[in-house]
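dumping this here so i dont lose it again. seq + smiles for adenosine-5'-triphosphate
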Amino acid sequence: MDRVPTGIDGLDELIEGGIPRRRMILVSGSTGTGKTIFSSQFIYRGATDYNEPGIFVTLDERPDTIREDMLQFGWDFRKLEEKGMIRIIDGTVSRVGIPSEEEYSLPETGFNLDKLLVEIIKSIKEMGAKRLVVDSLPALGFKYDTEVEIRKAILKMSYVLSRSGVTSIVTTEIPENSGTYSKYGVEEYVADGLIVLRYGALGGQTTRTLHVRKMRATKHSEHIHPLEITRERGIVVYPIDEV
Ligand SMILES: Nc1ncnc2c1ncn2[C@@H]1O[C@H](COP(=O)(O)OP(=O)(O)OP(=O)(O)O)[C@@H](O)[C@H]1O
Ligand SMILES: [Mg+2]
């Protein structure tokens, strides 16, 4: 099977070398667990280490704050955007109905999933993108009432993206202490994989962990692995026996 290396140190070893190509996986976690850094690293390393152009659709954070935040890891998004290796699509302003100052953005009115997908497909074709991130799914503000409709919407998204040839990461939130894996409690069933990021406190110490909860077509690690966010390498995942 053709696999896409994530660019996250220590992660590919846990999933037989990477994410199955053209699949859509979810990265879920509560606030501050590293979802945005994780997905930025996937796009950045994809462009620099694997020569794969990538698209980052941001619905939560403004493109400028992402560029600024990622610079602290030495990841110069601007430079790669100029080379056509990375494209950030601004979906933040369309959610509140004001025009974007960004080169690539979603229409400022009538924001919905179909318009988002049209915009994404256009960009994939223009730049030959191989990787895609949507950060975050709940920010799409689904106005669907039933579980069935939410499932349908996410299935549509994964189907369209897969046909366009990209391997995608979609982030979702876990409500704190909810005992669920995702915002709607259904998206993990539709996605091809689920990686859960956690931030916990243990005896006065805080620990970050990563758990590959599901990865279709993959014999993946079933352990909960320690994770670190570092200036030098971004997110780093450790084998279980190094705890
Ligand atoms: N240089 C750094 N070194 C260590 N930790 C860092 C560094 N920069 C950021 N962090 C950690 O990463 C967190 C932010 O990560 P990120 O924005 O990816 O989280 P998130 O899951 O996307 O959160 P949100 O729910 O707000 O979108 C910060 O709260 C901080 O704990
Ligand atoms: Mg985030």
